[in-house]
Amino acid sequence: MAKTKNENTEQQILEAAKKVFQLKGMDGARMQEIADEAGINKAMLHYYYRSKQLLFEAVFSHAFAMMAPQLNQILNDDSSIEEKIRHFTHDHLSFIMEHPYLPKFIIQELNRNPDFVTNMKTKTGFPSIEKFKIQVAAEVKQGILKPIAGEQLFINILALNIFPIIASPMIKAFIRADDEGYTQLLESRKTEVANFIINAIKA
Amino acid sequence: MAKTKNENTEQQILEAAKKVFQLKGMDGARMQEIADEAGINKAMLHYYYRSKQLLFEAVFSHAFAMMAPQLNQILNDDSSIEEKIRHFTHDHLSFIMEHPYLPKFIIQELNRNPDFVTNMKTKTGFPSIEKFKIQVAAEVKQGILKPIAGEQLFINILALNIFPIIASPMIKAFIRADDEGYTQLLESRKTEVANFIINAIKA
DNA sequence: GTTTGGTTTAACCAAATGGTTAACAAAGGT
DNA sequence: ACCTTTGTTAACCATTTGGTTAAACCAAAC
After folding, report:
1. pTM of the model
2. For A22, which of A68, A101, A129, A161 could close a Cys bridge (C-beta 3.0–4.6 Å)?
């Protein structure tokens, strides 16, 4: 059997599909463009992935799988809330600065088809917020933190980290920054966001 | 001239286009669907708006025009930073809770075509952050606020308000809330977000 | 060296898409 | 009454879209 090229091709298709889907979204992506990007015939896409929908789901799952472990870091780690916040904001912002299309893509496509999240929840490794909520409640009771619900704190952390990435074109316009200036602004946030949050919640 | 229906029709088209474009985005929207939604013939869309692109731009401008005044409230009002934050977070979150598709739509389409923001910047009424920056610097110097750059504070305010709306499907999944539970969570944020921010920055 | 079975290609297809056209209807102005 | 302008419709059009097919290709098994 001819196996020389095949493992390669399937991977090449996935890489090309990631590129195109994450840049243009499901609706804006064209199978022909993915084929061109992969340097192969359009029929090959269907040979390996049957349909646009299935190829898209492969890409989406892959993208989601890259984000999930990051979240588990803050949700299920054993350090204190303050330590978690300092580590997570820094690491996570560094990560999405290098993959800005990941959160854009996931959030956009989840808005397009909210039912999609149902599939995700069944998958193993889907982040659970339970432990984090208990920990926050405990530290509030101990007087370490000002009263706050774990959900709200979690949302705030994500918001402060992710929003500047997904809304970058709009924010760039507001603050009149070029790409370099904006990168520098984000660079500052790697430490400033943690200070901001901790000031907000520390008793 | 036949005017009986016309003023009506053009508006009906715009309303239908808003609905469809804001729900599905430029790429996902179909001219036929907009025509159906408006209860008219597809040719009428082109009669009044020439092309999909121009109809889309009409919708986008309209959407942006609804958001801009809200931002000018926090950027150019004359009250103190603390007062601004309390008023803005409450009013703005109330507003986007009633129009959740507005920020989703604007951010999604700005990511699809970042050059689009250039057109917006030239329009009158495009929010400027200058006054806000000066005010923040002044209050920091007076010792009212902890040191923070105006841009960063502005980003944080927007992030805490807007992110929970645009990422709602994802967050709903994380915190395992149904629609009602999520609405309640957002309802709390109308006052909690202001407290959070003010705790973070007040000296 | 021929068979074998996965791989790759070019040509093809039906459906959908944005857009156009030509005819028609309604309304005013003269 | 007649003509012009504006609004509306149904039929049509070229192109693009995701998807299919049948034949060619090619490395290995026999």
Report:
1. 0.94
2. A101
- Answer yes or no: is B128 CB < 7 A from strand D: no
Domains of chain B: 1-50 (1.10.10.60), 64-201 (1.10.357.10)
> Among partner residues A169, A189, A196, which is closest to B117 by beta-carbon distance?
A169
CA proximity to B32, closest of B22, B49, B20: B20
Give contacts of A176 with chain B, Cβ < 8 Å: 129
pLDDT class of B6 with cuts at 50, 70, 90: low
B2 band by pLDDT with thresholds 50, 70 and 90 = very low
Whether A170 sits with its Cβ under 7 A from any strand C atom: the answer reads no
Query: Tens digit of pLDDT for each residue in B148-194?
Result: 999 999 999 999 999 999 999 999 999 999 999 999 999 999 999 99
Which of the nucleotides in strand C have any atom less than 7 Å away from a protein CB atom? 4-11, 16-22, 25-28
CA distance A41 to chain B (A): 24
CA distance A62 to A123: 12
Res B1 pLDDT > 70? no
Question: Is residue A149 packed enough to be buried (19+ CB in 10 Å), middle (13-18) or exposed (0-12)?
Answer: middle
Nearest CA in chain A to B115: A169
pLDDT digit string, tens, across residues A94-117: 999 999 999 999 999 999 998 888
Closest Cβ opposite residue A189 in set B24, B152, B164: B152
Which candidate from A156, A163, A170 shows the least CB-CB separation from B110? A170
- Cβ distance of A201 and B197 shorter than 8 Å: no
